[in-house]
Amino acid sequence: MTVNPPVLKSVMEKGQGTAARMLDRLPGIAQEALVKALDYPHVYPDLDPLVKCLMAIQIKQGHSSFISEDLAHSRTLFDARMKAIAAKPTTVKVIEELRLPLQSGSIFARHYHPAPQKKLPMVIFYHGGAFMVGGLDSHDEFCRLLAVHAKVQVLSVAYPLTPEFSPLQMVKVCEDALAWAHQHSKQLKIYKNRIAVAGDSAGGNLATVVAQRSAGKSYAARAQLLLYPAVDFKSRHPSFYAYKDGLVLSEQDIDLVTFMYAQTHQIELDDPLISPTYGELRNLPPSYVITARHDVLHDEGSIYAHKLRQNGVSVHYHEYTDQAHGFINLTPISRRAKKYVIEISKNFRKFWDKNS
To answer: Active-site residues: which are they?
Structure first.
Protein backbone atom coordinates (compact mmCIF):
# COMPACT_ATOMS: atom_id res chain seq x y z
CA MET A 1 0.00 0.00 0.00
CA THR A 2 1.24 3.51 -0.82
CA VAL A 3 0.23 6.85 0.64
CA ASN A 4 -0.53 9.51 -1.95
CA PRO A 5 0.72 13.12 -1.49
CA PRO A 6 -2.70 14.68 -0.68
CA VAL A 7 -3.25 12.22 2.18
CA LEU A 8 0.25 12.89 3.48
CA LYS A 9 -0.32 16.66 3.24
CA SER A 10 -3.63 16.32 5.10
CA VAL A 11 -1.99 14.43 7.97
CA MET A 12 0.84 16.94 8.24
CA GLU A 13 -1.45 19.97 8.25
CA LYS A 14 -4.15 18.85 10.68
CA GLY A 15 -3.94 19.65 14.38
CA GLN A 16 -1.71 17.18 16.22
CA GLY A 17 -4.51 15.50 18.15
CA THR A 18 -6.87 15.22 15.19
CA ALA A 19 -4.14 13.94 12.87
CA ALA A 20 -2.85 11.43 15.43
CA ARG A 21 -6.32 10.04 16.12
CA MET A 22 -6.86 9.75 12.38
CA LEU A 23 -3.57 7.84 12.08
CA ASP A 24 -4.53 5.59 15.00
CA ARG A 25 -7.60 4.43 13.09
CA LEU A 26 -5.57 3.39 10.03
CA PRO A 27 -4.61 -0.28 9.61
CA GLY A 28 -1.02 -1.14 10.47
CA ILE A 29 -0.08 -1.61 6.81
CA ALA A 30 -1.20 1.95 6.02
CA GLN A 31 0.70 3.32 9.00
CA GLU A 32 3.87 1.54 7.83
CA ALA A 33 3.35 2.94 4.32
CA LEU A 34 3.13 6.44 5.80
CA VAL A 35 6.34 5.87 7.76
CA LYS A 36 8.05 4.91 4.50
CA ALA A 37 6.57 7.92 2.66
CA LEU A 38 7.93 10.20 5.37
CA ASP A 39 11.42 8.69 4.95
CA TYR A 40 11.74 7.70 8.61
CA PRO A 41 15.44 6.82 8.73
CA HIS A 42 15.37 4.27 11.57
CA VAL A 43 14.55 0.56 11.59
CA TYR A 44 12.55 -0.59 14.61
CA PRO A 45 10.52 -3.58 13.34
CA ASP A 46 8.70 -4.26 16.63
CA LEU A 47 7.78 -0.66 17.42
CA ASP A 48 4.08 0.28 17.40
CA PRO A 49 3.54 1.66 13.86
CA LEU A 50 1.54 4.61 15.23
CA VAL A 51 4.55 5.65 17.30
CA LYS A 52 6.75 5.30 14.21
CA CYS A 53 4.36 7.61 12.33
CA LEU A 54 4.48 10.18 15.13
CA MET A 55 8.27 10.05 15.27
CA ALA A 56 8.57 10.31 11.48
CA ILE A 57 6.30 13.39 11.43
CA GLN A 58 8.25 14.95 14.29
CA ILE A 59 11.55 14.49 12.46
CA LYS A 60 10.00 15.85 9.24
CA GLN A 61 8.98 18.95 11.20
CA GLY A 62 12.57 19.45 12.37
CA HIS A 63 12.28 18.13 15.94
CA SER A 64 14.92 15.58 16.87
CA SER A 65 15.03 15.94 20.66
CA PHE A 66 12.64 16.19 23.58
CA ILE A 67 14.20 19.22 25.25
CA SER A 68 16.77 21.90 24.42
CA GLU A 69 19.00 24.30 26.30
CA ASP A 70 16.28 26.94 25.84
CA LEU A 71 14.28 25.65 28.80
CA ALA A 72 11.56 28.29 28.64
CA HIS A 73 10.86 27.24 25.05
CA SER A 74 11.05 23.52 25.94
CA ARG A 75 8.52 23.97 28.75
CA THR A 76 6.14 25.94 26.57
CA LEU A 77 6.51 23.47 23.69
CA PHE A 78 5.94 20.40 25.88
CA ASP A 79 2.82 21.90 27.47
CA ALA A 80 1.54 22.93 24.03
CA ARG A 81 2.09 19.42 22.64
CA MET A 82 0.24 17.80 25.53
CA LYS A 83 -2.60 20.29 25.11
CA ALA A 84 -2.69 19.70 21.34
CA ILE A 85 -3.28 15.95 21.67
CA ALA A 86 -5.83 16.25 24.48
CA ALA A 87 -9.21 14.60 24.03
CA LYS A 88 -12.32 14.44 26.21
CA PRO A 89 -10.89 13.65 29.67
CA THR A 90 -11.79 10.54 31.63
CA THR A 91 -14.43 11.37 34.23
CA VAL A 92 -13.39 11.24 37.89
CA LYS A 93 -16.05 11.99 40.50
CA VAL A 94 -14.02 14.53 42.46
CA ILE A 95 -10.94 16.45 41.33
CA GLU A 96 -9.66 19.13 43.67
CA GLU A 97 -6.88 21.67 43.28
CA LEU A 98 -4.80 21.87 46.45
CA ARG A 99 -1.98 23.92 47.85
CA LEU A 100 0.13 21.84 50.20
CA PRO A 101 1.86 23.77 53.01
CA LEU A 102 4.95 21.56 53.24
CA GLN A 103 8.03 22.01 55.40
CA SER A 104 10.04 22.52 52.23
CA GLY A 105 7.64 25.16 50.87
CA SER A 106 4.12 25.55 49.55
CA ILE A 107 3.35 23.66 46.35
CA PHE A 108 0.35 22.95 44.14
CA ALA A 109 -1.14 19.48 43.85
CA ARG A 110 -4.21 17.90 42.28
CA HIS A 111 -6.29 15.35 44.16
CA TYR A 112 -8.32 12.76 42.24
CA HIS A 113 -10.93 10.70 44.09
CA PRO A 114 -13.07 8.25 42.11
CA ALA A 115 -15.36 7.38 45.05
CA PRO A 116 -15.38 10.26 47.57
CA GLN A 117 -17.72 8.49 49.99
CA LYS A 118 -15.34 5.55 50.37
CA LYS A 119 -11.98 4.98 52.01
CA LEU A 120 -9.42 4.19 49.32
CA PRO A 121 -5.64 3.75 49.08
CA MET A 122 -3.66 6.80 47.96
CA VAL A 123 -1.01 7.06 45.24
CA ILE A 124 1.34 10.05 45.36
CA PHE A 125 2.25 10.73 41.73
CA TYR A 126 5.36 12.54 40.45
CA HIS A 127 5.15 13.45 36.77
CA GLY A 128 7.83 12.84 34.17
CA GLY A 129 9.50 15.50 32.05
CA ALA A 130 13.27 15.16 32.39
CA PHE A 131 13.16 16.98 35.77
CA MET A 132 12.76 20.18 33.71
CA VAL A 133 9.34 20.23 32.02
CA GLY A 134 5.81 19.02 32.67
CA GLY A 135 3.34 19.52 35.47
CA LEU A 136 -0.14 18.72 36.71
CA ASP A 137 -1.77 19.26 33.32
CA SER A 138 0.70 17.25 31.24
CA HIS A 139 -0.14 14.07 33.20
CA ASP A 140 -3.75 14.81 34.05
CA GLU A 141 -5.26 12.12 31.83
CA PHE A 142 -2.90 9.45 33.14
CA CYS A 143 -3.83 10.33 36.73
CA ARG A 144 -7.53 10.12 35.83
CA LEU A 145 -7.09 6.67 34.29
CA LEU A 146 -5.03 5.48 37.26
CA ALA A 147 -7.61 6.72 39.78
CA VAL A 148 -10.57 5.15 37.97
CA HIS A 149 -9.04 1.80 36.98
CA ALA A 150 -6.84 1.15 40.02
CA LYS A 151 -9.67 2.39 42.27
CA VAL A 152 -7.31 4.64 44.20
CA GLN A 153 -7.02 8.25 45.16
CA VAL A 154 -4.22 10.04 43.31
CA LEU A 155 -2.33 13.07 44.57
CA SER A 156 -0.36 14.55 41.67
CA VAL A 157 2.45 16.76 42.94
CA ALA A 158 3.75 19.88 41.16
CA TYR A 159 7.30 19.60 42.47
CA PRO A 160 9.79 22.37 41.56
CA LEU A 161 11.94 21.87 38.47
CA THR A 162 15.65 21.93 37.76
CA PRO A 163 18.00 23.73 37.15
CA GLU A 164 16.31 26.41 39.27
CA PHE A 165 16.08 23.88 42.09
CA SER A 166 18.62 21.25 43.13
CA PRO A 167 17.96 17.51 43.27
CA LEU A 168 17.93 17.64 47.08
CA GLN A 169 15.34 20.44 47.11
CA MET A 170 13.14 18.57 44.62
CA VAL A 171 13.40 15.27 46.49
CA LYS A 172 12.59 16.96 49.82
CA VAL A 173 9.40 18.43 48.35
CA CYS A 174 8.40 15.01 47.00
CA GLU A 175 9.12 13.30 50.31
CA ASP A 176 7.28 16.03 52.24
CA ALA A 177 4.22 15.49 50.02
CA LEU A 178 4.24 11.82 51.02
CA ALA A 179 4.54 12.77 54.70
CA TRP A 180 1.72 15.32 54.30
CA ALA A 181 -0.61 12.68 52.88
CA HIS A 182 0.23 10.36 55.79
CA GLN A 183 -0.46 13.13 58.31
CA HIS A 184 -3.83 13.88 56.67
CA SER A 185 -4.84 10.26 56.03
CA LYS A 186 -7.96 10.53 58.19
CA GLN A 187 -9.25 13.67 56.46
CA LEU A 188 -8.42 12.20 53.06
CA LYS A 189 -10.14 8.89 53.86
CA ILE A 190 -7.05 6.82 53.12
CA TYR A 191 -6.94 3.15 54.07
CA LYS A 192 -4.50 2.67 56.96
CA ASN A 193 -0.95 2.04 55.71
CA ARG A 194 -2.01 2.23 52.07
CA ILE A 195 -0.07 5.13 50.55
CA ALA A 196 2.12 4.39 47.51
CA VAL A 197 4.45 6.49 45.40
CA ALA A 198 4.43 6.46 41.60
CA GLY A 199 6.01 8.24 38.68
CA ASP A 200 7.10 8.00 35.07
CA SER A 201 10.63 8.63 33.81
CA ALA A 202 12.03 11.48 35.93
CA GLY A 203 9.01 11.08 38.20
CA GLY A 204 9.86 7.38 38.49
CA ASN A 205 13.32 8.44 39.64
CA LEU A 206 11.83 10.71 42.30
CA ALA A 207 9.44 7.96 43.43
CA THR A 208 12.31 5.48 43.88
CA VAL A 209 14.42 8.01 45.79
CA VAL A 210 11.46 8.91 48.03
CA ALA A 211 10.73 5.21 48.66
CA GLN A 212 14.36 4.71 49.72
CA ARG A 213 14.50 7.82 51.91
CA SER A 214 11.18 7.09 53.62
CA ALA A 215 11.92 3.41 54.34
CA GLY A 216 11.56 2.73 58.06
CA LYS A 217 9.83 6.06 58.78
CA SER A 218 6.23 6.40 59.96
CA TYR A 219 5.15 7.72 56.57
CA ALA A 220 7.08 5.15 54.50
CA ALA A 221 5.72 4.41 51.04
CA ARG A 222 3.86 1.07 51.11
CA ALA A 223 4.25 0.34 47.39
CA GLN A 224 5.80 1.91 44.32
CA LEU A 225 4.66 2.06 40.71
CA LEU A 226 7.61 2.89 38.46
CA LEU A 227 6.97 3.59 34.78
CA TYR A 228 10.14 3.46 32.67
CA PRO A 229 12.07 5.08 35.54
CA ALA A 230 15.41 6.86 35.21
CA VAL A 231 17.50 5.26 37.95
CA ASP A 232 21.13 5.32 36.76
CA PHE A 233 22.90 8.48 35.58
CA LYS A 234 26.32 6.84 35.70
CA SER A 235 26.01 3.90 33.31
CA ARG A 236 25.21 3.55 29.62
CA HIS A 237 23.55 0.19 28.96
CA PRO A 238 22.94 -1.55 25.59
CA SER A 239 19.42 -0.06 25.29
CA PHE A 240 20.96 3.40 25.38
CA TYR A 241 22.95 2.71 22.22
CA ALA A 242 20.15 0.75 20.53
CA TYR A 243 17.45 3.42 20.95
CA LYS A 244 19.25 6.76 21.25
CA ASP A 245 18.08 8.10 17.88
CA GLY A 246 14.73 8.75 16.22
CA LEU A 247 12.55 8.17 19.30
CA VAL A 248 11.05 10.29 22.08
CA LEU A 249 14.16 10.38 24.25
CA SER A 250 17.50 10.88 22.51
CA GLU A 251 21.17 10.76 23.45
CA GLN A 252 21.15 14.56 23.30
CA ASP A 253 18.29 14.67 25.81
CA ILE A 254 20.09 12.34 28.24
CA ASP A 255 23.28 14.42 28.01
CA LEU A 256 21.36 17.64 28.68
CA VAL A 257 19.45 16.15 31.64
CA THR A 258 22.71 14.83 33.09
CA PHE A 259 24.24 18.28 32.82
CA MET A 260 21.22 20.20 34.16
CA TYR A 261 20.18 17.84 36.97
CA ALA A 262 23.51 16.42 38.13
CA GLN A 263 26.54 18.39 36.97
CA THR A 264 25.05 21.88 37.38
CA HIS A 265 24.38 21.01 41.02
CA GLN A 266 27.71 19.19 41.47
CA ILE A 267 26.15 15.80 42.25
CA GLU A 268 28.20 12.66 41.56
CA LEU A 269 26.52 10.48 38.93
CA ASP A 270 26.39 7.44 41.24
CA ASP A 271 24.94 9.38 44.19
CA PRO A 272 21.71 7.57 45.25
CA LEU A 273 20.04 10.98 45.46
CA ILE A 274 19.88 10.94 41.65
CA SER A 275 20.83 7.32 40.83
CA PRO A 276 18.76 5.18 43.20
CA THR A 277 20.06 1.96 41.64
CA TYR A 278 23.15 2.56 43.86
CA GLY A 279 21.06 3.17 46.99
CA GLU A 280 19.94 0.93 49.86
CA LEU A 281 17.59 -1.58 48.27
CA ARG A 282 16.66 -3.71 51.26
CA ASN A 283 13.37 -3.20 53.11
CA LEU A 284 11.77 -1.35 50.21
CA PRO A 285 8.04 -1.67 49.52
CA PRO A 286 6.47 -3.95 46.88
CA SER A 287 7.49 -2.58 43.51
CA TYR A 288 5.60 -2.67 40.20
CA VAL A 289 8.10 -1.80 37.46
CA ILE A 290 7.21 -1.07 33.83
CA THR A 291 9.63 -0.57 30.95
CA ALA A 292 9.23 0.15 27.25
CA ARG A 293 11.60 -1.83 25.04
CA HIS A 294 12.26 1.04 22.58
CA ASP A 295 13.71 3.30 25.25
CA VAL A 296 17.20 4.40 26.21
CA LEU A 297 16.16 3.85 29.85
CA HIS A 298 14.90 0.28 29.30
CA ASP A 299 17.89 -1.59 30.66
CA GLU A 300 18.36 0.48 33.80
CA GLY A 301 14.70 -0.09 34.72
CA SER A 302 15.02 -3.82 34.08
CA ILE A 303 18.25 -4.03 36.07
CA TYR A 304 16.69 -2.08 38.95
CA ALA A 305 13.77 -4.53 39.11
CA HIS A 306 16.26 -7.43 39.18
CA LYS A 307 18.31 -5.78 41.94
CA LEU A 308 15.19 -5.20 44.03
CA ARG A 309 14.33 -8.91 43.76
CA GLN A 310 17.88 -9.83 44.78
CA ASN A 311 17.39 -7.71 47.90
CA GLY A 312 14.21 -9.49 48.92
CA VAL A 313 11.70 -6.95 47.58
CA SER A 314 8.45 -8.22 46.09
CA VAL A 315 8.57 -7.17 42.42
CA HIS A 316 6.30 -7.35 39.41
CA TYR A 317 8.16 -6.46 36.22
CA HIS A 318 6.61 -6.02 32.79
CA GLU A 319 8.13 -4.84 29.52
CA TYR A 320 5.94 -3.39 26.76
CA THR A 321 7.87 -4.63 23.77
CA ASP A 322 6.13 -2.47 21.14
CA GLN A 323 6.29 0.82 23.02
CA ALA A 324 8.71 3.72 23.36
CA HIS A 325 9.49 6.05 26.22
CA GLY A 326 6.57 8.30 27.14
CA PHE A 327 3.72 6.04 26.02
CA ILE A 328 1.53 6.83 29.04
CA ASN A 329 1.15 10.36 27.64
CA LEU A 330 -0.27 9.04 24.35
CA THR A 331 -3.56 7.74 25.78
CA PRO A 332 -5.64 10.58 24.22
CA ILE A 333 -4.49 9.59 20.72
CA SER A 334 -3.52 5.92 20.94
CA ARG A 335 -6.03 3.19 21.71
CA ARG A 336 -3.15 0.82 22.35
CA ALA A 337 -1.46 3.12 24.87
CA LYS A 338 -4.78 3.65 26.65
CA LYS A 339 -5.36 -0.09 26.80
CA TYR A 340 -1.91 -0.56 28.34
CA VAL A 341 -2.42 2.19 30.94
CA ILE A 342 -5.76 0.68 32.00
CA GLU A 343 -4.08 -2.73 32.22
CA ILE A 344 -1.22 -1.31 34.31
CA SER A 345 -3.66 0.44 36.65
CA LYS A 346 -5.78 -2.65 37.29
CA ASN A 347 -2.81 -4.98 37.68
CA PHE A 348 -0.92 -2.61 39.96
CA ARG A 349 -3.90 -2.53 42.34
CA LYS A 350 -4.13 -6.35 42.33
CA PHE A 351 -0.39 -6.60 42.99
CA TRP A 352 -0.56 -4.04 45.80
CA ASP A 353 -3.54 -5.74 47.44
CA LYS A 354 -1.79 -9.11 47.25
CA ASN A 355 1.38 -7.68 48.85
CA SER A 356 -0.21 -5.54 51.56
So the answer is: 201, 295, 325
